[in-house]
Every structure is written in structure tokens, then in C-alpha cells.
């Protein structure tokens, strides 16, 4: 090796004196030296290549367990501790997690949300899975939440088991316990006296046993509330609005999420109902189940509209202009907004200008009209683009005369409603029966008088 370095030094000296004249043998010797040096650098025993070898093995392990290849480099860059993890330890971590829930979807979701759970020292404590917790029929979401909370607060299975036993001692069924761990897993690290305070408060409100279990099953988030700052002021607001305790209790059992209302929201909903100006039949439908239930219905629809991007003020304005939306169910309103945004490609802000969209029937008006307009747009039969206001605002007869009647092929698209439109101006069937004079039954005396009269004429 020393001899090659001396020869290389001599060659460099000669090339410095005569750079343009290098023999073929010298060039060949130089190439062999450089190739040997490059081979030495690429050797896997060098420290530089060891740093590249580990991530490659980590990538292979992650790929085998279903992680998308396109996101792996970004995932490793955000979690550099995985580069220092041995592939063998990483493999064992994945095996322990799969033993808990044999689902690739569960595995990817858990590791993506909390990569720190792959620490083998932590998972060794959970090698027996969830059997120590004593919960029947655990779901993927519950398992994921329990493992994440345990990793975040360094909890062992014994710590989690004690917390769950305390919850069971308060009367919670296994089904409700699973729901609580799915929606509000932070109860694992809550103090016992705070949970007991909430249960005791519900008991004071004339709620007992199975009723409390039902409420916690539907709305587990109540366990995270404060009695002093949240629940007690909310019940005081209901009392000030004139609702007795039994009425509030019945409404809570029908819709436990009432306990999640912010202070002042329900009062605003009732003020909105007082200012409502609509037809009497619609108003009667809104108040058919009582004032409290009407306020809850308004609150639910306001929340639905706000979750879709409208402001709190715009949501109330939409309902005030189109109170029929309160009569329709929340699922129906949600479905109409989905169709508006995803299928019809309108912005949700269009509801502020055309609130009547939420008040028409989905199957009988919205879908048939949209299909007709889309067909005419595809065939080039529309001169101008039809906006949402024209699509919904036209009466059935006008829409039929404008877009269906001139195009016979649209009759099938528009469906059976075309028959209703054509026969609208005709008299109802059987009207002649109503105009027919009333007939009275004939008695024997009437028959004798008729016969005697006809005999006298003859």
C-alpha cells in the first residue's frame, strides 16, 4: 500500500510538469488505485455506511407491516429515534401490538398517531395485552386510546386496571366503559373524587342507576366537565327559563348531549323561536314536542351548519329565513349539504343566499331537478348556467315548462312528478259525485201516491 502511494506521488509530480503526456499504463494504474480507494469507502465496515444501513433495515420492517412507502422517509425524519432502534426490537414491538389487535389498520393508525409506542421497553409491560384490564369486547379505538394514554403518562397495565375498576364500582357497565374509553380516554388519569362528584350531581338531579349508565354511554364527555363551573350553572339556566327538574330530566334522557350546551346557548335558541315568523302549520310542527325540545332541535341544526363552515350568525339567519329546516331531521340536513358541496359543486356559503334549499324535499325536488339540468348541460341545451336560486326557486309547474316539457327525453329523468304537473289544472276525479243532488229513500206510502197519480193521468 505504501509503495502504491509513492508511485501515485511520483505520477502526480510528473503530471504537474507535463500534464498533457500521460501514458496509457500510467492512466490504467491511476484508475486501479482510485477504484481500490472507492471500494474501500463503500465497505460496510466503515462508520459512514453503518448510519445508512440502519434506516434501510427500518424501512424494510415498516414496509412489511403495511406502512405506505411514499410517507416513510417523512415519517422517519419526524421520528429520528427510530433510526437508532434495532430492526429486531422494532419487529418485536410490531408483534406485541398485533397480538393485542390483529389488524393492520389498527397498527398503522396507532403508530402514526403515537410513534413512541414502538418503544420495546414500554410494550414489554403490555405483552399480555388487554386481558389484565377486565374489559369485555374491546374495540380498536378503545385499545388505541388506552395504549396512547398509557405511553404518554407512563402507565402500566396495573395502573390502568385500577382506574377502570373504580369506574366499574360507580355502576358503569362494560359496554359504557368501552364507550367512555373511546370518546374520553382521559378519565384514566382523572382523580376519583372528581368522577364521584359528577355521579353524585346526576343523582341529585333524580337520575339513578341505569339512567346514569345510559347518559354516559351516549355522552361520555360529561365525565370531563366541572360540576361547579359547568353542570350546576347549566341547570340554573334551565330553571330560570321556567323548566322544572322533571321536564329537564326527561329531555336529558331523550338527548343526553343537552348537558354539553354552553351557558347562554339554549337561552338564545328560545329567543330565536320567539322571533320566528312562519306559517302556522310549520310552527305547530316545530313546537309539537314542547318548547324545550324545539330549542334543542334549533341548537342541533345550528351546530350542524357551523360544522360545515357557516358562522354562528349565518346559521341562525339561514334557519330564520327557512324554518322548514328545523322540521327536517339533522341527518337529512346533513345529506342535503353533502349533495350541495360534493355533487352539485356549490360552496356552502350559498345557503346564506338560498336558504330555501334546506326546506325542499330531497328526493322529490332537489335530485330530479339536478339530474335534468345536468343532462341538458351535457347535451348543450342550456343557454345560460342555472344557479342554485333558479334551480330551487322555480315552482314545479314553471320548472316543468322551462326544462322538461321542451325535451321529451327529460320526462323519464324527471320521473313520476311530470304526471302530477300535467294533471294539476284538471278537476279532481269524482267531483261530479259531490254535485249530485241528495236522494231520499222512498216509503210504501210514497209508492202508493205515485201509482194513484199515474193511474189518474192514464
Report on the architecture of this protein.
The chain starts with a helix and ends with a helix. The radius of gyration is 39 Å and the shape is extended. The chain has a domain at 2-41. The longest helix has 18 residues, at 24-41. By secondary structure, it is mostly helical. 66% of the residues lie in helices and 0% in strands.
Quickly describe the structure:
By secondary structure, the protein is an all-alpha fold.
State the main characteristics.
extended; 458 residues; mainly alpha
Order of helices and strands: HHHHHHHHHHHHHHHHHHHHHHHHHHHH
> DSSP strand (E) fraction?
under 5%
Based on DSSP secondary structure assignment, what is the total number of beta strands?
A: 0
Shape: extended
Which assembly state applies to the chains in this document? single chain
Rg result: 39 Å
Residue ranges: pLDDT <50 for 5 or more in a row? Answer: 12-55, 418-423
Average pLDDT, all residues: 82
List the helices and strands and how they pair.
Blueprint: H1 2-17, H2 24-41, H3 47-64, H4 69-78, H5 87-100, H6 104-113, H7 120-125, H8 140-152, H9 157-169, H10 174-183, H11 192-204, H12 210-218, H13 227-240, H14 245-254, H15 265-274, H16 280-286, H17 291-307, H18 312-321, H19 324-327, H20 330-343, H21 350-353, H22 362-379, H23 388-393, H24 396-404, H25 410-414, H26 417-422, H27 431-435, H28 444-457
Helix pairs in contact: 3-4, 6-8, 8-10, 10-12, 15-17, 17-18, 22-24
Amino acid at each position: 500500500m505504501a509503495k502504491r502511494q509513492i508511485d501515485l506521488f511520483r505520477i502526480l509530480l510528473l503530471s504537474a510538469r507535463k500534464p498533457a503526456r500521460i501514458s496509457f499504463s500510467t492512466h490504467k494504474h491511476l484508475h486501479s488505485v482510485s477504484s481500490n480507494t472507492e471500494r474501500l469507502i463503500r465497505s460496510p465496515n466503515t462508520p459512514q455506511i453503518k448510519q445508512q444501513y440502519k434506516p434501510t433495515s427500518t424501512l424494510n420492517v415498516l414496509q412489511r407491516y403495511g406502512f405506505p412507502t411514499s410517507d416513510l422517509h417523512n415519517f422517519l425524519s419526524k421520528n429520528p429515534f427510530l433510526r437508532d432502534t434495532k430492526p429486531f426490537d422494532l419487529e418485536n414491538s410490531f408483534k406485541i401490538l398485533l397480538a393485542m389487535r390483529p389488524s393492520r389498520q389498527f397498527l398503522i393508525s396507532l403508530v402514526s398517531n403515537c410513534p413512541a409506542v414502538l418503544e420495546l421497553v414500554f410494550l414489554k409491560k403490555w405483552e399480555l395485552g388487554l386481558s389484565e384490564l377486565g374489559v369485555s369486547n374491546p374495540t380498536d379505538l378503545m385499545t388505541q386510546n388506552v395504549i396512547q394514554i398509557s405511553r404518554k403518562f407512563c402507565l402500566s397495565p396495573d395502573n390502568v386496571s385500577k382506574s377502570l375498576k373504580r369506574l366499574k364500582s360507580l355502576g358503569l357497565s362494560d359496554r359504557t366503559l368501552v364507550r367512555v374509553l373511546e370518546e374520553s380516554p382521559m378519565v384514566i388519569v382523572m382523580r376519583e373524587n372528581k368522577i364521584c362528584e359528577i355521579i353524585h350531581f346526576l343523582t341529585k338531579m333524580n337520575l339513578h342507576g341505569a339512567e346514569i349508565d345510559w347518559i354516559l354511554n351516549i355522552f361520555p364527555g360529561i365525565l370531563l366537565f366541572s360540576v361547579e363551573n359547568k353542570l350546576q350553572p347549566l341547570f340554573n339556566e334551565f330553571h330560570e327559563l321556567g323548566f322544572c327538574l322533571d321536564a329537564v330530566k326527561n329531555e336529558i334522557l331523550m338527548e343526553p348531549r343537552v348537558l354539553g350546551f354552553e351557558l347562554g346557548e339554549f337561552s338564545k335558541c328560545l329567543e330565536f323561536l320567539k322571533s320566528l315568523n312562519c306559517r302556522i302549520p310549520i310552527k305547530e310542527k316545530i313546537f309539537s314536542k314542547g318548547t324545550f325540545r324545539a330549542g334543542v332541535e334549533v341548537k342541533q341544526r345550528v351546530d350542524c351548519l357551523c360544522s360545515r363552515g357557516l358562522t354562528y350568525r349565518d346559521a341562525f339567519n339561514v334557519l330564520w329565513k327557512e324554518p322548514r329546516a328545523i322540521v327536517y331531521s339533522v341527518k337529512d340536513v346533513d345529506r342535503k349539504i353533502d349533495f350541495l358541496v360534493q355533487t352539485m359543486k356549490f360552496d356552502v356559503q350559498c345557503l346564506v343566499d338560498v336558504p330555501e334549499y334546506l326546506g325542499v324535499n330531497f328526493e322529490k325536488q332537489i335530485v330530479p331537478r339536478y339530474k335534468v339540468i345536468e343532462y341538458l348541460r351535457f347535451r348543450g341545451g342550456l343557454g345560460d348556467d342555472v344557479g342554485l336560486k333558479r334551480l330551487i326557486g322555480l315552482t314545479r309547474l314553471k320548472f316543468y315548462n322551462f326544462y322538461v316539457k321542451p325535451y321529451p327525453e327529460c320526462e323519464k329523468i324527471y320521473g313520476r312528478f311530470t304526471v302530477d304537473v300535467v294533471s294539476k289544472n284538471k278537476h279532481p276525479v269524482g267531483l261530479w259525485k259531490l254535485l249530485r243532488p241528495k236522494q231520499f229513500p222512498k216509503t210504501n206510502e210514497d209508492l202508493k201516491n205515485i201509482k194513484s197519480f199515474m193511474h189518474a193521468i192514464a
